[in-house]
Amino acid sequence: MAPVIDTVAWVHLTEGRILGARTRGKEVFYIPGGKRNAGESDLEALLREVREELTVALVPETVTHLGTYTAQAHGHPEGTLVRMACYTADYRGELTASSEIEEIAWLRLADRDRTAPVDHLVFDALAVAGRLR
């Protein structure tokens, strides 16, 4: 069985664009989020990762599951998969790149190839739903 990296992600959309984050030293953007710590629920991991990466606080009662996607893990040996549980949520604070994040950007469907393979699936689903232009 292929190794699976279990992650959560915050899908934040505005005006047909999605928020992306680029980690220091990486060339691709990712949907903000990351791996859960041992014993963390999706919600706990999501709140922690977004706070660490973007300095904002998600509003827990607004967190809604958008979908879960699985694809080849970017930058890992062939056959290593990433499973990404995606959520939407309102937030409080000002979006700011922090911690290991070098850059945040508002991405369009045309930017799909600037993201990791699992993000391609999210971009495609959002485009089909008319939420990403």
UniProtKB/TrEMBL annotation:
- Gene Ontology MF terms in the entry: 8-oxo-7,8-dihydroguanosine triphosphate pyrophosphatase activity; metal ion binding
Q: InterPro entries from the entry?
A: NUDIX_hydrolase-like_dom_sf, NUDIX_hydrolase_CS, NUDIX_hydrolase_dom
Question: GO BP, one example?
Answer: DNA protection
Task: Report the residue ranges that make up the Nudix hydrolase domain in this protein.
Answer: 1-130
Q: Name one Pfam family in it.
A: NUDIX
Keyword terms, alphabetized: Hydrolase, Magnesium, Metal-binding
Gene Ontology cellular-component annotations = cytoplasm
Coiled-coil spans are none
Q: Which cofactor does it need?
A: Mg(2+)
Q: Which family does it belong to?
A: Belongs to the Nudix hydrolase family.
Q: What is the protein name for this chain?
A: NUDIX domain-containing protein
- Which species is listed as the source? Streptomyces hoynatensis
